[in-house]
Structure prediction request, 141 residues.
Amino acid sequence: EWLWVHDDLEVSLAKVQRMREEGWLDMWTQKAEASIAVYNAEHGLHTLVNINLFFSRSGRIWKWAIPGSVFAEMYDSKSTAGSYALDISWIGGLLWIVISEGWDVHMTIRLYGVRGLYHEYANIWNMVDWFSVWGGAAIII
Prediction:
């Protein structure tokens, strides 16, 4: 069951009461998790705090709070040219993979036709290259 921040207090309390009545937490429950997203404007941090409660059969409850943070601004005023250089070199490496794999596709089609993509080009390492390209594109976007 989800408890949304934008819901009214009465709606959230009604959900909690209904969950209690339905016995959502019983002797067979192994884990309960609550997550909350927090923004710290003073430090410019977005933080997702996951609070996990693990229930053992003996009755003990293990509590585990896991915060994960990321800066709101990619580059702050203290960023150096090194940060930009690393980003540019990473994008350059990604472009190198796109260009070299594109050339391989072009040459395969030229030599073997479109069917050559399946018979000659499709192997595990070329698929790894293309998955890295798509993953890198997702990171950039």
Observations:
- Residues 53 and 63 are 5 Å apart (CA to CA).
- The two ends are 32 Å apart (CA to CA).
